[in-house]
Amino acid sequence: MSQSTDVLQQTQGRKIGPFRADQVGSLLRSEPVKKARLQKANGEITAEQLREVENEEIKRIVEKQKEIGLKAVTDGEFRRSWWHFDFLEGLDGVEGFVADKGIQFHNVVTKPRGIKVTSKVDFTNHPMLEDYQFLHSIAGTHTPKMTIPSPNMLFFRGKLEESPYEDLDEFHHDVAQAYKKAIRAFYDAGCRYLQLDDTAWSVFFSEKGHEQIKAFGRQPDELRQSFANTINEAIEGRPDDLTVTMHICRGNFQSTWVAEGGYDAAAETIFDGLNLDGLFLEFDDERSGGFEPLRFVKRKDLQIVLGLITSKFGELENPDDIKRRIEEASRYADLNQLCLSPQCGFASTEEGNLLTEEQQWEKLRHVIEIAEDVWK
Fold this sequence. Notes:
Distance between the termini: 22 Å
Helix content: 25-40%
Largest sheet: 6 strands, parallel
Pfam family, one: Meth_synt_2
Low-confidence stretches: 1-12
Protein name: 5-methyltetrahydropteroyltriglutamate--homocysteine S-methyltransferase
CATH topology: TIM Barrel
Number of helices: 12
Number of domains: 1
Keywords: Methyltransferase, Transferase
CATH class: Alpha Beta
Radius of gyration: 20 Å
EC number: 2.1.1.14
CATH architecture: Alpha-Beta Barrel
Number of strands: 13
Enzyme class: transferase
Shape: globular
Structural class: alpha/beta
Strand order of the largest sheet: 7-9-10-11-12-13
Mean pLDDT: 92
């Protein structure tokens, strides 16, 4: 980025994502989509009819995102059941299955679902390319943002016991290469703003997580470097005009969570070891720790999106409190490298969080209004 372009973005607002006011991606599924998905499951409508309903509802929510003032628009992940499994199952060598039990969140469990690696992982084509192309076709002058799970999620949530991989380094390499092809395919489809969603990093944030790492048969330092290498290999050589960010999450299902702990134990790797353009980070409550780990932000071209507005409940945060927290974060990272968003999406799975659609839009308006005050 040229110095003159950088100055223009600082004085007039960012021209590329992440934007000063941004969003993570998923939105509450609308009633027409929920009804149509149920009808499709019951054999009452065809896949084509379901897609027609999804198309109309995605058009509606994209217009709503434009109306409230967002610069980046998403399809709300309206065609997905899960934020991660739906994409990962579309990779070569990966299959979905009905698991023995769901994923345990704080006081609630998801429906049972799992993925397993059955052959060498690769990427040849994917139905979400068509999903992105539809979003691109209706985005207009706004920036269409595509979200997919991080390559680390295949290791973190995938069953590898029956896979052809005896060497985990080979597995991580193949996954990275598959993602490199996927990223190129989305770029060729027109995508210029891509986000990798990743809950795997949360295992480094607590002692409970470290126990989970050891249960994988790995050591924290080794796995942390492996995660970083996989991401960096996947995005290496990406086109200059493609922005790739990552959202780090501690779990989001029906307004609850899985992990807790600050970024400290993995901060140096996350903030100074990943060749990303931006990081979307949870900072909405005490589970996420303080801003001190931001001191490891060394690059001037890395954007940090502060997830200070919760997507888990509808009550609006006091804007002065949010502005004070942004000011506090700016003690560790330059204000011109900071942005604002909700801490996560509103519906990481089709069930969605426990708030209304209107509360969701009010949350996003809240982000925009606060950002406009901070970055005038």
